[in-house]
Amino acid sequence: MIINALNSGGSVFMADFEDSNTPSWRNQLDGQINLYDAVRNAISYQHPTTKKEYTLNKETAVLKVRPRGWHLPEKHVLIHNEPTSGSLFDFGLFIYHNAKALKDKGTGPYFYLPKLQNAEEAKLWAEVFEYTEERL
């Protein structure tokens, strides 16, 4: 649960959209919704049996997002009838919906980029970041 992870006392929590997530459409969207709510301190949960309430502490771990690797597609979003990159989908959705809110809180969007294979992939990410920064 993201609430417990952010409240763990650790300095950083990494929301992983690859290895620790089954990349179903529902999981991908629920993960993004949870991050959106967490960034805004608007996430809570009540256990159905115990009725215990879970909310974010005033001070939480820094949020880092791990998008899927370049090799994983997002088959539910097509560009020219081809699945888009899971990496770009995860990154784009998070940055679009959360960059301003994070900046307003005095922090920023942080990413862990999985399984970079070569300098070309690193350069591609650098171009994605540069393009995004110019438009935020």
UniProtKB/TrEMBL annotation:
Q: Name one GO molecular function term.
A: malate synthase activity
By its UniProt entry, which PANTHER family does this protein fall under? MALATE SYNTHASE (PTHR42902), MALATE SYNTHASE 1-RELATED (PTHR42902:SF1)
| SUPFAM superfamilies, sorted | Malate synthase G (SSF51645)
Q: What is its EC number?
A: 2.3.3.9
Q: What class of enzyme is it?
A: transferase
Q: Which family does it belong to?
A: Belongs to the malate synthase family.
Q: Which Pfam families match?
A: MS_TIM-barrel (PF01274)
What organism is listed for this UniProt entry? Oesophagostomum dentatum (Nodular worm)
GO CC field:
cytoplasm
- What this protein is called in its record is malate synthase
Residue ranges of every copy of the Malate synthase TIM barrel domain listed in the record: 63-135
GO biological process terms, semicolon-separated: glyoxylate cycle
